[in-house]
Amino acid sequence: MAPILAWLLVLGQTPEVPAPARVTGRVNWRGALPQVQPFLAPPSPLVGQPDPALRPWPNPHAPSIAPDGGLGGILVWAAEPAGSFRTVLQPPVRVLVENGQILVEQGGGVVPVGLLNPGDAISVESRQAAFFTLRGRGAAFFGLPLVRANQTVRRTLDKPGWVELSSGTGQYWARGWLWVGAPVHTTVTDASGRFELVNLKPGRHTLVARLPDWQLADRQRDPETGELLRAVYKEPGLQRVEVNLQSGQAGQCILSFPANEK
């Protein structure tokens, strides 16, 4: 390749560089709308509290489905070869514990998944009076005790992979997600389910959409009281589609999650 490039330069010709491509698309829900019920539990099941009454807590994995079936807040990415962890500048990730839920903020708003590079740090803060321990599992293993409200704690994440955030103090329903070393071309659908990926190399790409599952695969209870202490959600649903992008052109695609597969 180098001799050919040198010969073209001698002839005064500039080698043609393929223009980047882009792809637009939509993620849809197909079928009957799911009925996602809230969880019933006291505010802090494992912490002494003056009001132990049961309250409804929204399921953090409940899908956001537009009237015409578009799925909002769905992570979409162009798959890369295994072991490829190219870095791209990402806004800082902040994890907030508020009203019994774990919220992940990035780029000025709440996101379904926080995207980080290996070596990035997250800031964690509790905005509720009750004591809370944030658990990390998966590519990272930690427990962060949040003793005081509105006090920031930081944690560095070095290993690429998915990190599941949950409660170590009984809020079994609460979840948050981080992806360390996410592919460069990653985005989130808007409220209507639409997305766009830009600056892709021309050629074939596999696009992947991820839908968290709101159903429980397992329930772990206290052997003495029978209280639900920990819940395990089913694995997220993944849909894939192949696209062949031409230089400088825009491709289109649709990914659908059928209701009968949930």
Number of structural units classed as domains: 2
Radius of gyration: 22 Å
- On the 0 to 100 scale, the average pLDDT is 88
Number of strands: 23
Low-pLDDT residue intervals, each spanning 5 or more residues: none
Secondary structure layout plus pairing:
Elements (H helix, E strand, L loop, with lengths): L1 H9 L10 E10 L8 E3 L13 E3 L6 E2 L5 E2 L2 E4 L14 E6 L2 E6 L2 E2 L3 E3 L3 E7 L5 E7 L3 E5 L6 E5 L3 E7 L8 E5 L5 E3 L5 E7 L2 E9 L4 E6 L6 E6 L3 E9 L4 E9 L4
Give a description of the structure.
With 262 residues, the protein is mainly β. The chain folds into two domains: 17-80 and 193-262, no CATH class; 83-182, Cupredoxins -  blue copper proteins (Immunoglobulin-like). The protein contains one helix and 23 strands. A five-stranded mixed beta sheet has the order 9-8-7-11-14, with no helix packed on it. A five-stranded mixed beta sheet has the order 10-16-15-12-13, with no helix packed on it. A hairpin with an 8-residue loop joins strand 15 (161-167) and strand 16 (176-180). The protein starts with a helix and ends with a strand.
Concise overview:
By secondary structure, the protein is mainly beta.
